[in-house]
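During the second half of the funding period, the structural biology subgroup turned its attention to how the target accommodates small molecules. The most pressing case was zinc ion, which had performed well in the primary screen but for which no bound structure existed. We therefore specified the complex as follows and requested a full 3D prediction, including the ligand pose.
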Amino acid sequence: MFVYDSGIRLTVADLAIDTRRRQARAFISHAHSDHIARHDYVLCTAPTAALMEHRLGKKRMVHVMEPGVPIDWAGVTLTALPAGHCLGAAMLHVQADGRSLLYTGDFKLSPSATVPAAQPVQAETLIMESTFGTPDYRMPPHAEVLGQLGDLLRRILEAEAVPVIEAYSLGKGQEITRRLHDLGHAVVQHPRVWDISKIYESFGVHLGRYRQWDGTIEPGEVAVVPPRCRLDIPRRRQVRIAVTGWAAEPAAKYRLGVAHALPLSDHADYDELLEMVERVEPRVVYCTHGSEEFVHRLQELGWNARPLGRPAQRRLF
Ligand SMILES: [Zn+2]
């Protein structure tokens, strides 16, 4: 039904999936840079099309998929399903000749403040990301982490320093902006985050009170910037905070070069990865983007699990 050759290709539909090399026809699960390329013809959701156009420039030929609405593609039924993760992120459900496959792309099962949670369905074959596929990556409850963030911001602001939160410009930047708004903080966004926030708002996602960085910062404001992005604020001390799933590892802040790291993830954590497999009940599961350890764990639990492709180099964001 599919082949893997430095990327996934659905053989039944002659369709590449999340391939970084240019293709004639490709499904794009979401607009993070490691999932997009300048394909000739793209299948994706409307928000992903808008984000891709923003990132790659120039409109391309797109077949917009409405989440939950099946389409017929070369005799195969394709359905995009919400994946959580970021605006527009979709899993792909494929049905052909009584067989079925679910490709997750990056996903998150637990609720976020800005996008609907992933909605898996049963499938014979499951291809899933397994980024946080070891028990070290069990994320604490959101409320607990947000409580820590609130305390930390209060201390930083009381010391008259500027809290600068490092968050990926697509997804985490908007999620943390909304969470900060809910905690009662005004947000100043780096232009790269702000551009994407405007696209979120054009699709009806409310992010609360925020403005674009104009070289100034008012007392009480919290800055949100892409990772390792400098902000020139004369005569003010900056305290850098990373919000990332990698922060589940105690030493993460040293590797990330920040003062504090808090575990807020837009990926499924270890328990959610296991839950995904239980909900899909596949005959075979292929794991991408993760360690072999997760594959072995699934095998121990009785699943027919296999790694797909080389284990990806570990990314920090
Ligand atoms: Zn992603």
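Two results from this model are relevant to the next phase. The first helix runs from residue 46 to 56. Helices lie at 46-56, 142-158, 172-182, 191-202, 252-256, 270-280, 292-300.
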